[in-house]
Amino acid sequence: MKEWMGRLSLRTRLAGAYGLLAAGSLVFLLAIIARTLGPESLAQGKILPAAIFVLTVFFVGGWFVAGWCLSEISRLGSRINEKPPRPLPAELEGLAALLRREAQKRDQLLKELRRFTADASHELRTPLTALRTVGEVALRSPVANAEALQDTVGSMLEEAQRMHALVERLLRLARVESEGLAIQPRRLYLSIHLAALCDGVAVLAEEKNVKLKLECSRVLELTTDIVLLGYAFTNLVHNAIQYGPQGSIVTVKAYKGEDGSVSIEVSDQGAGIPPEHQLRIFERFYRVDAARSRDKGGYGLGLCISKTAIERLGGSINLVSELGHGATFRINLPTLAG
Question: Which fold has domain 186-333?
């Protein structure tokens, strides 16, 4: 029955519903007539043909009314993006508002997709161009000694590693954004887990002569997905070390709020982030100083990954920064059900 109804057009179904409503009303009316005048009044040959005629009129009328309603909705769809918007019937304003929101979401997604494609192409083109240039120069040069060939291969490997790092970050971002990603909460002692994550970037800290300082109670516990938390936290600490001055201190604080949520702060002693960049700092491929970031191996994806990972955990991440006074990224996380 459902399959048969599904094959009918929406207009036919609306007209049928209109006719059924009329049929129910007529049956009720005939029952009153039979009760009042007696059943024999229905057998006189006048009432039943009249009832059939009325049902036919109702069905045909419902057909035209349904067609008019659907044409109004179709007209609404063609006028939805008009600027300034033309007045619509009050009954359709709610639907119009919903369609406008969906159209804006679609336009925003398409805009982000185009920007992402352009940015990714640009980032990949730079190492590919360098790789091709080095290879072409090596081929056109006369037979070189082993040292020169080693330098050439080393340059090509360096550019290949840059491409590999970019692709890895893009894949990580895609995994974090995937709706099919399963969240796996685990209960952990936060001080132990954060200390282990800090150890993972200790080599970079030593190269930059940066000291990592962890302030977290040993009994502070949190139930969360350790993989997503690791993505977010590691990117924040890595950035704090990478863009902080030599000999500075990166401070990590973790504490429990009054509402039961857990906050993790990562603070550096760098130059700070200008106010005009703070609203866009979490966008993919966005960099405050593109040239400086590229020299340091940055692609503008780390903070986007951090924000997306934290939001998948039901938390939030925000930035507090003043020029000349460093930056503090604060993660707020709820305790997930284990």
Answer: Heat Shock Protein 90 (3.30.565)
Helix axes 93-140 and 146-177, enclosed angle (nearest 10): 170
**Cα separation, 108 vs 101, whole angstroms:** 10
pTM, rounded to two decimals: 0.61
Q: What's the pLDDT band for 332 if we cut at 50, 70, 90?
A: very high
- Can you give the residue ranges of every domain in the chain? 2-79, 96-177, 186-333
Is pLDDT of 83 > 80? no
Strand order from edge to edge, sheet including 211-216? 211-216, 249-256, 262-267, 327-333, 316-321
For residue 13, the surrounding DSSP H or E stretch is helix 10-37
Q: Which of 166, 165, 225, 235 is nearest to 197 (CA)?
A: 235
CA 243 to each of CA 85, 174, 212: distance values in angstroms, whole numbers, following the listed order? 48, 25, 14
Which residue bears the tokens 């090509």? 156
